[in-house]
């Protein structure tokens, strides 16, 4: 496929103008970049469906000029090209439907889907995406002005911080279609005490707990309950606010770090002391439009940094989908006892939830039934990678339907087989780590198999044009296969191709579902 340069310089008013923006948020961590990168790729693949008369979006009176595109995209001709290495997105299969549509159709709209805004940071600014660092997404008025200026048709707010701060509220009030919960609804993730209270009120199964602001009272309760026990910061702590304490001393130290030393600031001024649940942890996702919810496929994350689930918790070191532990029968139980009561409860509380409900669940060993550990109000990273590469439905249409309260009757189609992602992180993560280490052979890694894709989180380009690591979790090496074993083999083959002395990865992703193989020593 040749680069469709002419479609951006052609003065024909029937040619559709498509803007794809990638907002760069300096104030947020890069943990969720992979998630949003998946969104970006699959929304591109959906453009041929979006460019139809059935959708109503702002239409400018005259087609945008080529200079407008050039001002936004330094390399505009590459936006719909077959570039495969920048950001690790293998765009050939994703973009070709939209490109064929532009080549072969005469679109009657100057602008149909104006933009999908993905709010994130941590990616290098070239090729397939353009970061806009000067737009401060903590400033709602600035975001609204930007959306109005460019006629934005849908905003997808990814990270939890702008959701909790009320960005979605302001966008909806301004009449801009938005996929993401209000600040009130985002409290499901923003305050664990709020989530637990909702569970109590609407009889949603969860671990027993108590909430404390006084360290002495918390320690007395811990002593009465015994170890193991779980200590959680109430607020947002970048995925690091949970301690699974195997001894009383660990539990006391966690309480002191939050309530006395204030290591998490205001997020840790209140702690939840929670019953330790024994079982298997699994992730469950549902799209919600305020009243209706539809489930996504199951996935299983690997939170601990080390092989064998050892070491401290992280944002996630790998995942696979589907998760055998979450059978179809259990998924139905989750929907009926956890997800739907939450949606109805939030509606009854006067704060309808619109967006993604990500339920962290424990399939309890003693009962075999799911209990809610926590809620996140966004797609998980790295779970989203394995979900999105398996989704065959038109994601953009589904997100639009959710933002309009029209999910009733919507069903999702998934590819057969399995997917796995192996996260590569900077040495030292989740503690202090070195930045600026060079990463090579990404193209060779993606060439291991057509189904291998490398999603970037904490990367940038140095002055020589080479990728360097800028974050803790840096790459998500993802592959699909006919079954989980094939997906695992492809993912690890790709990992072995990557030349990054400054990185590391877990070698046992998928251990719960598969017998482990002895991986060859990395070259």
TrEMBL record:
Pathway: Purine metabolism; IMP biosynthesis via de novo pathway; N(1)-(5-phospho-D-ribosyl)glycinamide from 5-phospho-alpha-D-ribose 1-diphosphate: step 2/2. InterPro entries: ATP-grasp, ATP_grasp_subdomain_1, PreATP-grasp_dom_sf, PRibGlycinamid_synth_ATP-grasp, PRibGlycinamide_synth, PRibGlycinamide_synth_C-dom, PRibGlycinamide_synth_C_sf, PRibGlycinamide_synth_CS. GO terms for molecular function: ATP binding; metal ion binding; phosphoribosylamine-glycine ligase activity. Its EC number is 6.3.4.13. Residues 196-404 form the ATP-grasp domain. Keywords: ATP-binding, Chloroplast, Ligase, Nucleotide-binding, Plastid, Purine biosynthesis. This is phosphoribosylamine--glycine ligase. It comes from Salix purpurea (Purple osier willow).
